[in-house]
Amino acid sequence: MSKEKLGFEHLEANVIDSGKCCSCGGCEAACPIGAIELQNLSPTLVKDCTKCEFCWKSCPRMIADYSTIYPVVYGENVNRDPALGVFRQAYALRNADESIRKRAQDGGVVTAILLHLLETGAIEGAIVSGIHPDEPWKPKPMVAMTRTAIISATKSRYTRSPNLVALKEAMKELKLKQVAVVGTPCHIQAIQRMRLAPLKKVDRTVVMTIGLFCSETFKFKELMEDKIVGELGIPLTNLRKLDIKGKLLVYPRGAEGSLEIPLTEAQGWIDPGCHGCKDFASEFADISVGGAGTPSKWSSVLIRTEQGQAVIEEMITKGLLLQDELADEGLNRLRKIATPKIKTSH
Ligand SMILES: Cc1cc2nc3c(=O)[nH]c(=O)nc-3n(C[C@H](O)[C@H](O)[C@H](O)COP(=O)(O)OP(=O)(O)OC[C@H]3O[C@@H](n4cnc5c(N)ncnc54)[C@H](O)[C@@H]3O)c2cc1C
Ligand code: SF4
Ligand code: SF4
Ligand code: SF4
Q: Which of 206, 291, 301, 332 gives 20 to 30 Å between its CA and that of 198?
């Protein structure tokens, strides 16, 4: 007797209703009949479910054991750093183009890689987190298909961005055949889960994944509206940059330096979907990038796959990325940041 298939209700019961959803958008991208839409960041069934099982098989919050994903990314028998995952090379890098570096969050490495992939024809578009046209600092998933669009997405928004909704647009509406995906570890986990499901079209279309290091995201209302606008009196149109360096740093436009919010205060604004997340260093990406472990305006870069290594080496050779050593001290700092997330959760 064949086992009864489980549909959207399985995802609802195990992830959405129990507050574990991190709004990655993976289930919306995975559903072959377009039955799921994220409404107010929550996956909602908008037509009858055929119980194909792809949504919950793609969901990063349904992963019982991360080791099921390792072989998909790295092959068998690999040495895994317990805190940072499998990597073949670690670099400190920065974008050689100073004008982009100035706009970027850290070294502008993510933007440099995307521009290189686009300009060499390796991708037709990049799945990124852009900015909402009417709401400053509200993340808006975007398929960036031009240099201008990729550059417009620079800097980090420390609030939820369901980037994979844009993967659906890229595949189903724009019919792109080759894209790169930028995302936090949960976005990248969802991509690898889709490969395992197996969603062959995703496997073929996503030719490069660039994962960001990630400690958490915060609720938009509490951080952006109540704290930054309400309490600190900074209109979001006047906010230049946010950063996390042991504390939350708020940089207003036209002012020297930053205002500081202790992370102890920010704890209460952490998005509930981030509780229980154990991946800091985007373990399942081709290339992982973060700001910790390197000086300001440089990026720590972990290369995990052969194709990731080929791209970075080519960019260094062409002078598009400037290179420094990511010394053991930098790697150990990263391990120190990653370990508590792996051992516990918020
Ligand atoms: C929510 C979040 C938490 C982070 N936490 C840490 C941390 O604890 N420690 C650390 O070292 N680094 C962290 N990072 C990574 C860091 O902030 C930079 O994104 C990274 O160093 C790349 O810098 P860059 O200059 O190369 O990126 P840029 O060239 O400026 O490009 C930034 C890219 O980030 C994407 N992006 C922006 N906001 C989001 C979002 N909310 N979700 C998904 N994608 C987004 C954009 O699409 C853009 O392509 C975090 C990033 C995010 C988004
Ligand atoms: S992916 Fe399949 S199981 Fe999930 S909602 Fe869509 S049709 Fe239903
Ligand atoms: S975590 Fe992602 S895949 Fe899972 S239910 Fe939420 S949006 Fe869907
Ligand atoms: S902490 Fe985990 S779940 Fe939350 S945004 Fe980062 S990777 Fe996603």
A: 301
Total domains in the fold of the chain: 2
CATH number reported for the structural domain that contains residue 259 in this entry: 3.10.450
What pLDDT, on a 0 to 100 scale, did the predictor assign at position 341? Answer: 86
Cβ neighbours of residue 186 under 8 Å, at least 6 residues apart?
22, 24, 60, 61, 214, 277, 279
- Please check whether residue 108 lies inside any domain of the structure: yes
pLDDT band (50, 70, 90) for residue 345: very low
Q: Is residue 120 part of a domain?
A: yes
Q: Which atom of ligand 4 is nearest to the CA of 214?
A: 6
User: For 45-59, how does the pLDDT look when each residue is reduced to its tens digit (9 = 90+)?
Assistant: 999 999 999 999 999
Instruction: Tell me, yes or no, whether 229 and 139 share the same domain.
Output: no
Give me the residues paired with residue 299 across strands. 93
The ligand 2 site (C-beta within 6 Å) comprises: 7-8, 30-31, 33, 35-36, 49-55
Q: Calculate how far, in angstroms, residue 284's C-alpha sits from the geometric centre of ligand 4.
A: 13
Range of the structural domain that residue 263 is part of: 220-269
Contact 165, 175 (CB under 8 A): no
* Residue of 183, 192, 180 lying closest to 163 (CA atoms): 183
Q: Whose CA is nearest to atom 2 of ligand 3?
A: 24
User: Is 208 touching ligand 1 by the criterion CB < 6 Å?
Assistant: no
pLDDT digits (tens, 9 = 90+) for 166-193: 999 999 999 999 999 999 999 999 999 9
